């Protein structure tokens, strides 16, 4: 699933292509992509201008004139890409948005068909079911706010980082990389973390996410940016997907274990469980 760095990369990539364009029409090739009761409202977007593109957690919002926003969730394999109008849609293209006086379309593609799009009121977007329970954005937390976020919580730190109601946008790849940077074992109990460990963790979160954004995300399977290009952060991963390879810090073999049905990669020397 595209995580915060991938979704942020897509937004930054699409922003200069789409901002200011006026929607000509929407062609839905997979009706299940849009909830039945919302379909008539999508037709009313013709003529609306794209005002802004933004991210919340792992979701993309395209704000249009008239006070409405398109909310996209890419789920496992979804993509939002700009394509020349003359390019025939492939079998995984489920939505085509065309624009006036533009030679390009915006297309939503999804191999596994788990992704979706909703139309929400811009002023009330935060109240949408997909957004209202999200935790704070990782970049918005100062040290005190991060400590408060963890205070009184129980359980292992890796599942906590993946909990979108606690902090929004972090997924399996970046949770592993963040914990490695902070030298914290993924099975460590939250309540056992020292103040120093919590500070290291707080610093590691934006450090890893910003670096991944700089390299335009991680392409290990299906992810592509808004122009259909791969990211490059997979070339800078320290532990994720590197089972049995040497730790870049100490040289010991990276190990993998299952935590809450997910694979977790870590260095048993640099990330000792205390």
Explain how this protein is built:
With 274 residues, the chain is of the alpha+beta class. The protein has two domains: 4-127, MutM-like, N-terminal (N-terminal domain of MutM-like DNA repair proteins), CATH 3.20.190.10; 138-266, Helicase, Ruva Protein, domain 3, CATH 1.10.8. The protein is built from six helices and ten strands; from the N terminus they run αβαβββββββααααββ. It has helices spanning 4-18, 39-43, 143-150, 157-162, 172-182, 195-214, and strands spanning 23-28, 50-56, 59-64, 68-73, 78-84, 93-99, 104-110, 116-121, 255-259, 262-266. It has a four-stranded antiparallel sheet with strand order 1-6-7-5, with helices on one face. A four-stranded antiparallel sheet has the order 2-3-4-8, with helices on one face. A two-stranded antiparallel ribbon has the order 9-10. α5 packs across α6 (195-214). The protein is elongated and about 60 Å long. The mean pLDDT is 96.
- How many β-strand stretches? 10
CATH topology of the largest domain: Helicase, Ruva Protein, domain 3
What would you say the CATH architecture of the largest domain is? Orthogonal Bundle
- Give the topology string: H per helix, E per strand: HEHEEEEEEEHHHHEE
Please, how many helices? 6
Placed side by side, the strands forming the largest sheet appear as 1-6-7-5
Strand content: 15-25%
Helix content: 10-25%
The largest pleated sheet is described as: 4 strands, antiparallel
Distance N to C terminus: 31 Å
| Backbone structural class | alpha+beta
CATH class of the largest domain: Mainly Alpha
Roughly what is the average pLDDT, rounded to an integer? 96
pLDDT under 50 segments (min length 5)?
A: none
Shape: elongated
Radius of gyration: 20 Å
Query: How many domain units?
Result: 2
